[in-house]
Design goal:
The complex is a heterodimer of chains A (162) and B (112). With 162 residues, chain A is α+β, with helices and mostly antiparallel strands. Chain A is 27% helix and 41% strand. Chain B has a single domain, classed as Arc Repressor Mutant, subunit A (Orthogonal Bundle). Chain B has 5 helices and 2 strands, in the order ααααββα. In chain B, strands 1-2 form a two-stranded antiparallel ribbon. The longest helix of chain B is centred in the last third of the chain and has 30 residues. Classes of the chains: A alpha+beta (162), B mainly alpha (112).
């Protein structure tokens, strides 16, 4: 479950804390095993397929998300550092249709950390983006189309914040 | 699509405008009553010109509008534009809330 989400407009970053009732090694496997990663990365309507998956430092992940009408959106990670089962840092970017990284497109830095907590595992995720990168990411991923279930939630957040 | 269409340039301006503490403070002060640029400048330990520049950035991003009242330029915050920017961050949060839910389901063995 999510413990907290902090959005910082100053540094244009978002930090998310989540606790899982599972050992740290098990949670790490959700990232380290491509078959498991595929089952949570994309929403049910847009399942992800990992075409490349190497979580060692300098390694790459390449994935494609496929929508109900067969539309595809491709992305890649470049792993900056990995310390199984405790931390993973990577750059998240967009790919061309042929799967090669689109280096002209903006990227987001992601830091993921796992730690033991109360017999379970805490996951800390921090995303840092520049203005353009962030919005491009959302637009390219088609987040506004892909995640309709979030719409009601979004409106609720806006209302409660006045 | 529920989110208003924004061009890349508009989005760029929006986030550049919001990524500064003074400008966000100006937005808060200009909701109501709408101050003039000179009254706004009184509230900051910076020059009138510097405050004017911040207001110009906010105006180009569509976050405030300026209108004339007599000899004064009044500044008004566009609440919808501010809400739209926040919604972008909210979207990223929503995406990851979905992912964390699915991770928890997998850990609980709910779907195999």
């Amino acid at each position: 479950m999510i413990v907290s989400v902090e959005k910082d407009l100053d540094s244009l970053s978002l930090t998310l804390l989540a606790d899982f009732d599972a050992p740290i090694e098990r949670v790490w496997q959700l990232w380290a095993d491509p078959r498991q990663l595929e089952r949570w990365w994309g929403p049910p309507s847009h399942p992800a397929t990992m075409e490349k998956h190497d979580l060692a430092a300098g390694g790459e992940v390449a994935y494609v998300m496929t929508g109900p009408a067969g539309e595809e959106s491709r992305g890649w990670w470049r792993v900056t550092s990995a310390d199984p089962p405790r931390s993973l840092r990577f750059t998240d970017g967009w790919a061309h249709r042929d799967g090669t990284p689109n280096h002209a497109a903006p990227t987001t830095a992601v830091q993921m950390r796992l730690s033991e907590r109360d017999g379970g595992t805490r996951m800390e995720l921090r995303f840092t983006f520049e203005s353009r990168e962030h919005m491009d990411q959302l637009e390219r991923r088609g987040a506004f189309d892909v995640f309709p279930q979030s719409v009601g939630q979004m409106d609720g957040i806006l209302e409660s914040n006045g | 699509m529920v989110v208003d269409e924004l061009t890349d340039t508009e989005v760029d301006r929006l986030f550049h405008a919001l990524a500064d503490a003074t400008r966000r403070d100006i937005l808060r002060r200009c909701v109501a009553p709408e101050p003039s640029v000179s009254r706004l400048a009184d509230g900051y330990a910076m020059s009138f010109a510097a405050v004017q520049k911040h207001v110009a950035v906010l105006e180009r991003a569509g976050l405030v509008t300026k209108h004339r009242l007599g000899r004064e330029q009044l500044v008004r915050t566009d609440h919808d534009a501010v809400a739209r920017a926040r919604r972008v961050l909210d979207e990223l949060e929503a995406t990851w809330r979905g992912r964390v839910d699915r991770m928890a389901d997998l850990l609980a063995g709910h779907d195999g």
